[in-house]
Design goal:
Largest sheet: 11 strands, mixed
CATH class of the largest domain: Alpha Beta
Helix content: 25-40%
Distance between the termini: 46 Å
Number of helices: 12
Number of strands: 14
Structural class: alpha/beta
Strand content: 25-35%
CATH topology of the largest domain: Aminopeptidase
Oligomer: single chain
Length: about 475
């Protein structure tokens, strides 16, 4: 009888391994012949656009993601993470200098800052140094644009000296120099407290520093010219909800144990969020589609999480960790993609996980010879983070959850520069690299499916100090 049981056990393992290999082969086949990751990215960045919390664009992206997961045959969990009293939608913006040597102006405004009141035209003054100077030039602020000092760091300059007094004297907007590409963030201090009785009053313009210097010189030389701006930043009545969207592939044997695959759905709206984090959300969604299309039926549940509010303080992932404390010990691993559109070329794991990952990643190296894949051992445990930061993995790591994600690189030398893209006007669809995105979706699907099919949770031995 004992021999018979052993025989049945061995046979069951063989059948399971064959079924898993069959699914992995199908993932690779579909992923290399009918990969849809760039289609997902096209929808997010080009059809929907920048998706900051409180915007109609983010709501549209949420609804589209829900419909997509359902279309692929998945259950969907929608979590209301929070809401703003006032929402914000960015429209077109345009500006020009009106003079004999006039020019089109290159600029942006931070999210949740005011637009113009239609097309507004005015002369330019330089902000006063002190109260005495302000009093002397008080009459010059009427219908004028004000040049303020310092370099743009992305935020509104709500601490500008005598800002309130200049607006009361008639100033119609503030202009600050900016490096190019222009970075535009959001009004961190006020956006969660805004009501329709306390909205920003005039635009905060971040102008190409070369153009700023030209304008500043003209002002100091007392040349006559005007600037004209049409900035369509609009507000809407709240509550403006923001939500986590989670596609669920329920486990067949351990439904209460989890593998998490994720990216954040929200994005800054100065561009279209094509990289940060369209590149992560689209890979997450395509990994889900590939597993479903391949007929995958994992042992434990895979959660494909599109987090909300990452750019506003990791709001969605923080919410999930805080509201699921009982599940932290049941998460085998969290794979989070938020490092740009480079490609998965390896994975670095603790010694206790090494054997499992060698088995899971077998064959990845053969998918595309341009992208060799290596499983590496981490020699020393990582230090568990004490404070959240970086990306959505942070709160999970603080709770002791493994957050092992593939190593990313640029083997074909596209000279990818995340600094050029990060929260700037160049965060666009065409900054994501199709072959990198497609391969990463395949690798993410294989690894997450493999972890979900282990007979055990990944060992946490030696993971953190």
């Amino acid at each position: 009888m004992k021999k018979l049981l052993l025989l049945f056990s061995a046979l069951a393992i063989c059948i399971m391994t064959f079924a898993q290999d069959k699914v992995v082969k199908k993932i690779i086949e579909i992923g290399t012949t009918d990969n849809q990751v760039m289609n997902h990215l096209d929808v997010l960045s080009n059809r929907i656009g920048g998706r900051f919390i409180g915007s109609d664009a983010l709501t549209n992206a949420e609804e589209w993601a829900i419909a997509s997961f359902k279309k692929w045959g998945m259950k969907v969990i929608v979590e209301d993470v929070g809401a703003l009293n006032v929402g914000f939608n960015r429209g077109p913006w345009f500006g020009r200098m009106l003079s004999d040597d006039g020019m089109i102006l290159h600029f942006a405004t931070p999210t949740f800052t005011a637009g113009t009141k239609g097309v507004q035209r005015g002369e330019v003054v330089i902000a006063p140094r002190d109260t005495q100077q302000f009093n002397r030039m008080k009459g010059t602020f009427k219908n004028a644009w004000v040049l303020i000092s310092g370099m743009n760091a992305g935020w509104p300059c709500d601490t500008t000296f005598m800002r309130k007094e200049m607006v009361e004297a008639g100033a119609i907007g503030f202009i600050q120099a900016s490096e190019v590409p222009i970075r535009a963030l959001y009004d961190r201090k006020h956006c969660e407290q805004y009501t329709f009785d306390s909205l920003p009053d005039v635009p905060e313009i971040k102008l190409d520093e070369a153009q700023y210097r030209i304008i500043e010189k003209k002002v100091r030389q007392r040349q006559y010219f005007q600037l004209e701006f049409d900035i369509r930043n609009h507000y809407k009545m709240g509550p403006a909800k923001y939500r986590n969207i989670i596609g669920v592939l329920e486990g067949s044997e351990f439904p209460d144990e989890y593998v998490i695959v994720s990216g954040h759905l929200d994005a800054y709206d100065v561009a279209t969020g094509g990289v940060d984090c369209g590149s992560g959300s689209s890979v997450t969604m395509e990994a889900a589609r590939l597993i479903m299309a391949a007929g995958g039926r994992p042992k434990r549940t895979i959660l494909f999480c599109l987090w909300t509010g990452e750019e506003a303080g990791l709001l969605g992932s923080k919410y999930w960790v805080e509201h699921h404390p009982q599940d932290m010990s049941k998460i085998s691993n969290m794979i989070n993609r938020d490092g740009g559109p480079t490609v998965c070329t390896g994975i670095t794991v603790s010694p206790a996980m090494y054997k499992d990952f060698v088995s899971i990643c077998k064959g990845i190296d053969e998918i595309n010879p341009d992208f060799p894949f290596t499983v590496r051992k981490r020699e020393k445990p990582r230090k568990k983070p004490e404070h959240a930061g970086g990306s959505d993995y942070a709160y999970f790591a603080m709770a002791g959850v493994p957050t092992i994600s593939p190593d990313l690189s640029d083997p074909k030398g596209y000279n990818f520069s995340y600094g050029e893209i990060w929260h700037t006007e160049r965060d666009l669809y065409n900054k994501s690299i199709p072959e990198y995105q497609e391969h990463s979706a395949i690798v993410t699907a294989i690894i997450s499916y493999g972890i979900a099919n282990l007979n055990h949770l990944l060992s946490r031995e030696g993971l953190f100090e």
